[in-house]
Amino acid sequence: MEILTVKNLKKIYTTRFGGNKVEALSNISFSVEEGEYVAIMGESGSGKTTLLNILASLDKPTSGQVLLKGDNISSMKEKNLATFRREHLGFVFQDFNLLDTFSLKDNIFLPLVLSGKNYKNMNDRLIPIAKNLGISHLLDKFPYEVSGGEKQRTAVARALITDPDIVLADEPTGALDSKSTGQLLDIFSDINDKGQTILMVTHSTKSASHAKRVLFIKDGEIFHQIYKGELTNAQMYEKISNTLTLIATGGSRNE
Ligand SMILES: Nc1ncnc2c1ncn2[C@@H]1O[C@H](COP(=O)(O)OP(=O)(O)OP(=O)(O)O)[C@@H](O)[C@H]1O
User: Fold this and answer.
1) What pLDDT score does 185 carry?
2) pLDDT single digits (tens) 209-219
3) Could you say which of 53, 113, 168, 223 would form a disulfide bridge with 58 (CB–CB 3.0 to 4.6 Å)?
4) Residue 198 has pLDDT above 50, yes or no
5) Is the Cβ atom of 204 under 6 angstroms away from ligand 1?
6) Which 8-state DSSP code applies to residue 115?
7) Looking at domain 2-248, which of 2.40.110.10, 3.40.50.300, 1.10.3980.10, 3.40.640.10 is its CATH number?
8) Where does the record place the ABC transporter domain (predicted)?
9) Closest Cα to atom 28, ligand 1: which residue?
């Protein structure tokens, strides 16, 4: 089943005072099936963040549609969007976005508190997720008391606690050292194996090599895509590197 359908997205930024227009996305179409793990790559300025913001319903496209399980989020009213985001989407950001004055547990509970869930219900959900992410012993600590990798695992727990249709991750390993990066990528593969749909924007070839499909954006369009299939992470890494070189050297996708 298709979870996410993106149809002919165009985004033109108009600078203030009616100045220059920037076409960040010119015509993007793709879909994500339930249970997929997709990475989106592209050079700096290719439109990745713009695309993710539109998928996250944080920004509106100039034209085109984003359907999540058939609901057109690009035409949804602002007042319904916050609830929609909370109930259907999970977010993982490069810089964790945890609240410093909340314990890790309260950070993870936040989306459930906002949805009006009771404590027992929240705790029942938290226990298996925290165990799976290896943070059960840290739940009463505050963000400043734990490592970057532990913060990011907390952010993943917060993303998963609402059982979202899709996890949207923006450069999730960008602020992590290589050991924590490895742990986070293992966690993403593990939750994906258990059925969680993931869409991740990343510059990191290593991170993308864990995904089952990689989409490449160039000049505001999907330039190419690679399926992992039976490839190992190392083979996928090489295939992605070759495609990035092709993009950087201005080659065509058929070369
Ligand atoms: N708010 C904005 N107003 C005007 N132009 C913008 C705005 N945000 C992004 N752009 C432009 O749109 C294009 C795409 O930017 P975007 O941030 O989506 O790229 P990116 O692929 O995420 O880049 P990076 O990898 O460096 O984060 C760029 O040319 C950028 O300068």
Assistant:
1) 94
2) 999 999 999 98
3) 53
4) yes
5) no
6) T
7) 3.40.50.300
8) 4-244
9) 45
Prediction ipTM score: 0.95
Cα 81 to chain centroid, rounded: 18
Q: What is the mean pLDDT of residues 87-92?
A: 92
Mutation test residue for ligand 1: of 50, 59, 202, the one with most atoms within 8 Å of CB: 50
**28 Cα to the center of ligand 1, angstroms:** 15
* Rounded CA separation 248/152 (Å): 31
The answer to whether the CB of 13 is under 6 A from ligand 1 is yes
Q: How far is the centre of ligand 1, averaged over its atoms, from the C-alpha of 13 (Å)?
A: 9
Contact of 246 with 255, CB cutoff 8 Å: yes
Q: Is 22 in the pocket of ligand 1 (CB under 6 A)?
A: yes
pLDDT at 41 over 90: yes
Q: Using pLDDT thresholds of 50, 70 and 90, give the confidence band for residue 84.
A: confident
Q: Residues with Cβ < 8 Å from 70, sequence gap 6 or more?
A: none
**Domain range annotation of the chain:** 2-248
User: What is the per-residue pLDDT across 10-31, written as a single tens digit (0 to 9) for each?
Assistant: 999 987 776 788 899 999 999 9
- Does residue 251's CB lie within 6 angstroms of at least one atom of ligand 1? no
157 CA to middle of ligand 1, Å? 29
